Amino acid sequence: QVQLVESGGGLVQAGGSLRLSCAASGRTFSSYAMGWFRQAPGKEREFVATASKFPGNTKYADSVKGRFTISRDNARNTVYLQMNSLKAEDTAVYYCAAAATPTWGTPAGTGEYAYWGQGTQVTVSS
Description:
The protein is an all-beta fold. 0% of the residues lie in helices and 49% in strands. Strands 2, 4, 5, 6, 9, 10 and 11 form a 7-stranded mixed beta sheet that branches. The protein has a 4-stranded antiparallel beta sheet with strand order 1-3-8-7, with no helix packed on it.
């Protein structure tokens, strides 16, 4: 059974930074893409970023490109999301997710992920 545990959320002022972490267990971490999604109140869950199992192969939502960076440490079974220049509209619950299949690509759809963390709240005050 795959387990994902996020940490690092919190309250930050606009323009500030946060780093989210997601520790994975239960299968070969390095064989699967890992992604971050977010869900704001009253909105659907949306793609933020993903890192494929191929080193350096990442994809970002246009809304976070240039501000957020996803990275993974396969030795620690952990994926990170560094968030800089945060805006009020980044406020959401952030979810870590593990891809359903060992694709080489950078999946961006929620249906391409089989495992989800419990979520961590990020609140950006303006």
